[in-house]
Amino acid sequence: MIKTNYFLIAALAILIVGCRNRGNDNSTSLTGWSSKEKKEAGFSDGSNYKGQQVPPGMVLIEGGTFTMGHVQDDVMFDWNTTPVQMQVRSFYMDEVEVTNSEYLMYLEWLHKVFPNGEEQNAHIYKSALPDTLVWRSTLGANELLTQNYLRHPSYADYPVVGVSWLQATKFCEWRTNMVAERTLIKKGLLVNPYTNDSLQMNGQNYFDTQVYLKDPNLLFEGDSAAYKSGRNGEVDHIKISDGILPTAFRLPSEAEWEYAAKADVENREYNNIRGRKKYAWNSKYTRNNSRRFKGDQLANYKQGRGDYSGVAGWSSDGGDITMPIRSYNPNAYGLYDMSGNVSEWTADVYRPIIDTEANDFNYYRGNVFTKPMIDQDGKVVVVDYNNVEYDTLANGKIAIKDLPGSIKYVPITKDDAYMRNNYEKAYNIDARDGDLASTKMYEEDEEELDVQPRMYNSPVTPNNIGESGLRIQEYDKEIRSTMISDKTRVYKGGSWADREFWLDPAQRRYLPQYMASSSIGFRCATDKLGPMTPNRRKKTQELPK
Which of 46, 201, 307, 326 gets the most CB atoms within 10 Å of its CB? Predict the structure, then answer.
C-alpha cells in the first residue's frame, strides 16, 4: 500500500512538472521573456503563426531523393538525360496546368490597370497576349482554333498554349501579387481596391507584394485609405516575420517537375524505391487495365501518324488536340496531366548535361542574383513611366522588363560577392558550361577581353537599333552549329502532338524563351517553408541510459 502511494505521488509530480513546462512553451529558453512580455515591450513575436497554408489550387510535393534522368533505353541517342541521383526540397505545385480562363483573368487585370488605349501602356497588354497563331499550319485547316481557342467558353478549362517562357514567368509574378492581395483583404488589413471608388486602379497604383513589404506607403500613392486601421487607430502592416503573406509563385525547376511527375513515392518500400517508372502512372503501358475502361489510353497524346484520338465512336484518348483539365486520373501526388495533354515550361536554362558535380541538391541552372535598386536618398526605387524599360526580343516582339509600380532590381556587384565562398558574381546561367572558365581561354581575365569566346555557337540577335529605339528585324546569317544558348529553356512532358516516347518525364527538350507553341503550356510552383514533411517522425535512436 505504501509502495502504491509512492507511485501515485511520483506520477502526480511528473504531471505537475509537465504542466508547468507546457505553460512555459510560449517563452524562450535564452531570455525567459514570454510572448506577452515581448509584445508589451515592443518586440516582435511569432507565436501566432499557425503554419504555412496550402496555396490555392496546389498540392504538397514532399521532397526526397530520386533518380533524375533516363531509367529506360535512350532510343533517340540524345544522351542528355543520363541518370543522376538528386535531392529535391519539398514544394507546392499546381495540380493542373494554367487554363485559358485563369490566363484571361490576368489579361483582364492588365487591361483594367494599364488601359491599352493609353499611349504609355501600348506595349504592356500586348506583351502578355498568347500567340494564338501557333495553331496555324500551312497545310492544315486550323483557323478556327486561332480565333476561338483562347477566348471561347468552350475552351475555358483547356490548358493555355501559345505562351512563351517569358510570359509564363510574368504570370507567376502577377499571381503572387493577387494571392497576397486577397490574403490581406480577407484578413481585414487591406481595403478591396476593385470595389472602392476612392482608390484609383490605374498605372502604377496597384498592389505589389515586394513594394508592400519594403514600404506600404509607396502603394496607392501613399493613400492611407487603402489600409484598415487597427485597435489603436494605427494601420497594421504585415511583415515577413508574421508569416501571413504567401511565398512567391514561379515556374518549377526541371528537377522539381520531373520529381513530381515520376511520383516514385507510390513505389516506396521503407527508404527504397522498388522498380522503375516510365510514365507518371505506375505501369509500363499506356493503356488502362481496369475492367470498365480496359484499352483506353491513360494520357492524351498522338498514337500514330494521322491518329490523334482513335476511331470515331470509341475514342481511345478523347481528344484530337488538348483536353479539359482533370480528364485523366492524377498521379500519386495528385497532379493531373504530367504525361500528355501539353508539355510544360520549366525554369531551367537548357544544357546537354546536368552537372551534379557542381550541385546535387535542388539543381537549377538559371540564377542571376539581383538586389533592389537604391537611389541617392537611400530609398528603394520603384519603376514608373519615366524609368520603365522594354526589350525587343529576337522575334521582333516587344516585352516589358518590369511593370510600373514594381521594385526595380539590378544585378549584384563584385563588392556584394566579395570574399564569398558560395558565389562570385551575379550572372551564373552559363556557370561551368559556357562561361569563360569552361573554354580554352579559362586563364584570361573576363574584363580585359573585347569579345568573349562562345562555347555554344548558337544564333545571335543582331544589335541593330532604329531611330524609334526598337531593334530592326534581321536574321542572323552566320552558319551556326547549335540552338543552345543562355536563352533556351527546358520544357518537359509529352503533349497531344507527341508520340508515346515523349511521355516519359525524364525526356527533356528546349526552345528559346521568347517562342511559343501550340503544344506547350505551364503550371506554377512555390516553396514549402519549415519542415519538409507534415508528418512527425519518431526519434531514430534512444539516448543511452
Answer: 201
R_g over Cα of the chain: 27
133-159 pLDDT, tens digit per residue, is 999 999 999 999 999 999 999 999 999
Residue pLDDT, tens place only, 157-209? 999 999 999 999 999 999 999 999 999 999 888 988 888 877 777 777 899 99
Q: Where are the domains of the chain?
A: 58-172+249-363+489-535, 188-243
Counting every residue written for the chain, the total comes to 545
d(CA 191, CA 542): 53
User: For residue 374, what are the β-bridge partners?
Assistant: 380
Helical residues (DSSP H) of 41-130, grouped into ranges = 100-113, 124-128
> What is the residue whose three cell numbers read 492588365?
110
Q: How far is CA 506 from the centre of its chain?
A: 19
Euclidean distance between CA atoms 293 and 150, whole angstroms: 31
pLDDT single digits (tens) 359-374: 899 999 999 999 999 9
The CATH architecture annotation of domain 58-172+249-363+489-535 reads Alpha-Beta Complex (3.90)
Count other Cβ atoms within 10 Å, centred on residue 252: 29
Residue 344 CA to residue 257 CA, distance in Å, equals 9
CA–CA distances in Å: residue 421 to residues 103, 360, 457? 41, 17, 31
- How high is the pLDDT of residue 22? 45
Residue position matching grid coordinates 497588354: 125
Grid cell locating 185: 483583404
Nearest to 110 by CA among 316, 400, 330: 400
Identify the helix (H) or strand (E) that includes residue 346: strand 343-349
Q: What is the pTM of this model?
A: 0.90
Calpha distance 104→46 (Å, rounded): 38
